[in-house]
Design brief:
alpha+beta; 5-stranded antiparallel β-sheet
Length: 475
């Protein structure tokens, strides 16, 4: 199959997959208790496998091999995409497909800790992507609006905007929640029970369980069984973790004073001195906004710990805190805090980059400048620009001008120091002529250092429950 034929087939496959996903989403929404029995044929459907392959191939991780050493490029140049997908479909249909162990990579975290990343084989990633295409529309009809992480059309900015929205409206006490090793400790039996609530097809259930039990090939080349958790980094893990953590969303929604109660009932509770609650969750990071007292927040924190234990999860004692909005909290890299507006007596909730996030950015700038001393200035500027553009784009919708200007000054100093170390005998006049086009801002003629201070800030509009579904209604 040549490139034009593959693109044409992919276009037809995407149309077919979208139509089927829309039907699955609508059926699941119409009947919250419906269990879907014939899903395996969709997982092995040529259209679903082709779309899954395209998404896996387009991901940056396609260049990384699993335990079998194969990548997307090696399959394209060797076996060929059509033969690869035909063989994969055959192995799924005759039930001979078996997931291979994921390859472990340890990624450093802040504070000297390490995060375990699991790299599945390219074949397993395609099957997982196909599974996700089938299961996600069904479970999306059950997920509540308070969850934002790893869900279509939702982003971290929505979660931060929701925290700001409610803390500006009497929800002044915050339970900052952090789940300890969430991806590593999810109970497999409890998770499979949640899967069975919607999936009745035993072949799909067996496939999901096989991925959970595939094992891990550690960096020490020792194969270990996986008795709990979902490998962080796999395509299916975010969806399964959201399914597991939906028990938290559902519990807070149903408790007295939760979002499932009407506004009149919540107002009545507040007049009686009782609390009302709102949960905002992004993957395993969550915070609970409480309109009440600190005692109300402490009580519900204990309840949440009990609810999470049903899925084999634990709250991190060091990171699960109760704070007042005047003291502020860090959430998803943002600092959210109520301040008095300068020149007035009015108080507003502001969002701006947290010190930890700013320090992480400056540390990366410093590392790039230290590691690229012998490379041309153009290469250094390209790497810095990529980092600075991404960081400022994320923090642009907030009160971020001060942080942007600080990052601008810090980056300028690091680049100038890099130039002076690289050319120790150069004068300031010569440095400005050769590397700043006669001015003070670093440039090599082709690439100019990105200026974070020139980025204008804006305000992210809170969308609430108006976030559109990726699967439009057929009616």
């Amino acid at each position: 199959m040549n490139t034009d034929e593959l693109e044409s087939a992919l276009m037809r496959a995407e149309i077919r997959v979208l139509k089927i996903q829309t039907k699955l989403h609508q059926w699941a929404g119409d009947d919250p208790r419906r269990r879907f029995d014939d899903l395996f044929n969709l997982v092995a459907d040529p259209a679903f496998l082709l779309v899954a392959w395209d998404r896996v191939r387009g991901n940056r991780g396609a260049r990384t091999a699993g335990v079998d050493g194969r990548t997307a490029v090696s399959i394209q140049l060797g076996q060929g995409v059509e033969d690869f997908l035909d063989g994969l479909r055959t192995s799924l249909k005759d039930r001979s497909f078996r997931p291979l162990p994921v390859r472990e990579r340890m990624i450093p975290k802040a504070g000297g800790k390490w995060r375990r990343l699991g790299i599945a084989t390219i074949t397993d990633r395609v099957v997982q992507a196909s599974l996700k295409l089938v299961l996600e529309p069904i479970w999306e009809s059950d997920f509540l609006p308070c969850s934002y992480g790893f869900r279509p059309n939702r982003r971290a900015h929505d979660a931060v905007a929701e925290v700001r929205f409610f803390t500006s409206r009497s929800y002044e006490w915050i339970v900052e929640g952090d789940i300890k090793a969430c991806f590593d400790e999810i109970s497999h039996p409890s998770l499979m029970d949640k899967v069975r609530q919607r999936v009745g097809d035993k072949r799909v259930l067996a496939l999901v369980k096989a991925f959970l039990k595939a094992g891990i090939l550690g960096e020490d080349r020792v194969l270990r069984d996986t008795d709990a958790g979902t490998p962080q980094g796999s395509i299916l893990s975010p969806l399964l973790s959201n399914l597991a953590l939906s028990v938290l969303d559902e519990h807070v929604a149903q408790i007295p004073g939760g979002p499932s109660f009407s506004s009149w009932e919540r107002h009545k509770r507040r007049r009686q001195g009782l609390a009302t609650y709102r949960l905002i969750r992004y993957a395993d990071d969550w915070c609970l906004a409480v309109s009440g007292t600190q005692a109300h927040a402490e009580t519900l924190r204990e309840e949440i710990a009990t609810v999470l234990s049903t899925m084999g999860l634990r709250l991190s004692p060091d990171k699960t805190l109760i704070t007042h909005i005047d003291e502020g909290l860090d959430f998803l890299g943002w600092r959210i805090q109520r301040h008095r507006k300068r020149g007035t007596n009015r108080y507003y909730v502001y969002t701006y980059p947290a010190r930890k996030a700013l320090k992480a950015a400056t540390d990366k700038v410093k590392t790039i400048c230290r590691q690229n001393r012998n490379l041309p200035l153009e290469v250094l500027l390209h790497r810095l620009n990529s980092l600075l553009r991404g960081w400022t784009a994320y923090f642009r919708p907030g009160v971020s001008s001060t942080a942007f200007n600080y990052l601008r000054a810090f980056t300028w100093r690091q680049v100038i120091r890099w130039l002076r170390r690289k050319h120790p005998r150069i004068t300031w006049k010569e440095l400005r002529r050769r590397f700043c086009a006669g001015g003070w801002w670093p440039t090599d003629g082709k690439v100019t250092l990105f200026n974070p201070g020139a980025v204008s800030t804006t305000r992210y509009r809170y969308r609430g429950t108006k976030i559109p579904s990726p699967w439009p209604s057929t009616t």
